[in-house]
Write a structure and sequence with these properties.
345 residues; alpha+beta; 60s Ribosomal Protein L30, Chain: A; Phosphoribosyl-aminoimidazole Synthetase, Chain A, domain 2; 7-stranded mixed sheet; 6-stranded mixed sheet; 11 helices; 23% strand
Amino acid sequence: MKNFDLLSTVEYGGCSAKLPAKELSEALANLPKTPHPNLLVDIETHDDAGVYKISDDLALIQTTDFFSPVCSNPYEFGQISAANALSDVFAMGGEVLTALNIVAFPANVPLDILREILKGGTDKLIEAGGVMMGGHTIVDDVPKYGLAVTGKVHPNRIITNSAAQPGDVLILTKPIGAGVVMAGKRIGEVSDADYQMVLDSMKQLNMVGASIMQKYNVKCATDITGFGLLGHALKLAQGSNVTVQIDSTKVPLLKGAYDLVDLGCIPGACFRNLEYVEEHCQFASTLDYNLKMLLLDAQTSGGLLVCVKPQLVSNVMSDFQQQGFIHTATIGEVLEGTNGKVQVV
């Protein structure tokens, strides 16, 4: 097991392995709806998870996420994949209840590897306060792992990606550039320290974010994953029917990410995300190309993008930073406008 590298099994790993957002949106456009009075959040706004009302005081949050390896170590892969799946519950202000493992695994890979992946995922679920209930496995040429997660939230306290208001300030809680740094690691251009920083960021649960957002009555947020900062900001803008403005110079970056893009280390997911957003994005003529690509970089288990009232920004920022999200930064604002656009300056 010690000599087996999970990355040897994949070309694309983590959330960079998602289907292109533009093609996915087209494929989902004409699916039949399943309307129900208790269905509070569905696929309509492409939110982080679905929400179903059980009673006046309880709604269930349901989500699933899985992907191919994002790192070499199976235990860390399990941790990262679980943290990524759990994040959807936290982005909606909820608490984790239960989870099921989702596994695809090659028949010719030692089962010790699978055991370590599952241990990493279970340990991260325990950290989140959840209970593992079992799961399902199939044979596949490429290993894949994730969770189906159930959480809970009060029906009146749901945080969605469709409730941004003009005047809200945008706060981002983790630095971006994970996809770029991981690509740089593959070609030997990243130090072990910088790479470990990326892994640690991906393993960091967004759990405290849910409680901080509920403390300040936040109504709108999303987490940043495979469609990049701009892709998820666009979904928020369209869901809320507003214009979002992002200041590229204020977005926190993982160490080494900018220099890698400058070297030409730009993952294919950046260009797929650009294809998705470019029709709806207004890029300033002075925008640094390297920063533009980083804003499109696919993140795995990224941070939260939170819409905060101006008078609460200082307190929210302080709370996140004190809870270990030391790179938390204000990166833009919500503007008047009903066109679901993103402006990048």
